[in-house]
Amino acid sequence: REGIVPQARTHVHLAPTPTSKVGKRHAVAVLLEVATAKVREHGIVLYRSPNGVILARRIPAACIVGVQGCTRDGEAQVRRLRQAFHLE
Questions:
Q1: Is 87 a residue whose pLDDT tops 90?
Q2: pTM of the model
Q3: How far apart are CA 66 and CA 85, in angstroms?
Q4: pLDDT computed for residue 23 by the predictor
Q5: What's the CA gap between 85 and 7, in Å, rounded?
Q6: Half-sphere exposure of 7 (CA within 13 A, CB side)
Q7: Rounded CA separation 1/18 (Å)
Q8: Three-state SS for 28?
Q9: Distance between CA 44 and CA 62 in Å, rounded?
Q10: Could you tell me which residues come within 8 angstroms of residue 25 by beta carbon, excluding any fewer than 6 positions away?
Q11: Neighbouring C-alpha atoms within 13 Å toward the C-beta of 12
Q12: What's the whole-number mean pLDDT along residues 25-43?
């Protein structure tokens, strides 16, 4: 419901591309695709840090437009996540 929130950090950290080495954990189970145009439509500013990570205060659930499983565990979660984000 909340989308992506920074939890203990000040910003959400996003990778600029699925193959990027920055902005994501070393071994991610699931990648969420974020529509940057939708983020901006929600009035949220995106920043690019000096190392290339994209930063935002939050990402509304409506801005998540795709889900990709990257591991066996991630593939098992994809259907549930697609339903949660109304992508099916």
A1: no
A2: 0.83
A3: 9
A4: 64
A5: 19
A6: 2
A7: 24
A8: coil
A9: 13
A10: none
A11: 18
A12: 90
